[in-house]
Amino acid sequence: MSTMENAAATAAEDQEIEEYRPHRKWYRRPDIMVPVLLILLVYALLVGYVESPNFFRTKMEAPSGLVNFDWMWFFHLIPLMLQGLLVTIKGALLGFAVAVVLGLFFALGRRSKLPFVSWPVIAVIEFIRSTPVLVQLFFWLALERTIPVIDLSPIALLMVGLGVHYATYCSEAYRAGINSVDKGQWEAATALNLSPVTKWTRVVLPQAVPNVLPALGNYLVAAFKDAPMAFIIGVHGVLFFADQVAAETFRVTEPYLIAGVGFLMASLPAAWAVRQLERKIAYERV
């Protein structure tokens, strides 16, 4: 056998070994665990250190006039806007965490073959999806004030309101992803006599979740845009900052414009992070 043939055979063997090398567990992959730990750290910092301010008071006298745009006044409002933005990000991320987990249970409940399980879940999903989130926030506030046992802070009410609202949308995304799994995968899991937990965690969800990540990313961005409405239940976020500054100074252009910049500062990194996560776990689609 010539040298070239030996080299070709060796390369083929190496390729075969590489092809059949098993994937490492997700918790042993630094490219997955490092972002997960960073996300957990962000959640811990938001929960532990971000507090809702009682008021937003500027230290600089507002410029005179109601028409001309003042750049110095605009940049002066940035620190106050960031305080309100952190509160908004905290409420949106906590609510979305609830939505991602609760939405999966909604999707599984809707797929149940037991009518007394699937029908109530379907009714809840359709009812919540058909009512605006603003009305639902008022409902949770009224429920908290009606039942003395329930004593939740405004940010906790926002977390519950956004979480339940977007859980219904996430459940539909999960349902579409689960339905996209090939029928042969279900039959193979049944033929191998896999337990329901193993079938869902090792076969179905690893193939379904990558397909729904773009939709989940859209819901995360939408949650950032809906979270500022929680000022009606006492959450002093970025929209409350703009309202208070505009009411005190009678200048509306600068505070609302910088509030819009704050929305971009929150939404664009979130959308980028979801795209990176989708790329990291794309191998599950194969």
From TrEMBL:
Domain of life: Bacteria
Sequence ranges assigned to domain ABC transmembrane type-1 in this UniProt record: 85-274
Location(s) in or outside the cell: Cell membrane
Key words of the record: Amino-acid transport, Cell membrane, Membrane, Transmembrane, Transmembrane helix, Transport
TM annotation in the entry: 32-50, 80-107, 119-143, 149-169, 229-250, 256-274
Topological relation to the membrane, as annotated: Multi-pass membrane protein
Protein family: Belongs to the binding-protein-dependent transport system permease family.
Name used for this protein in its record: Ectoine/hydroxyectoine ABC transporter permease subunit EhuD
Name of the coding gene: ehuD
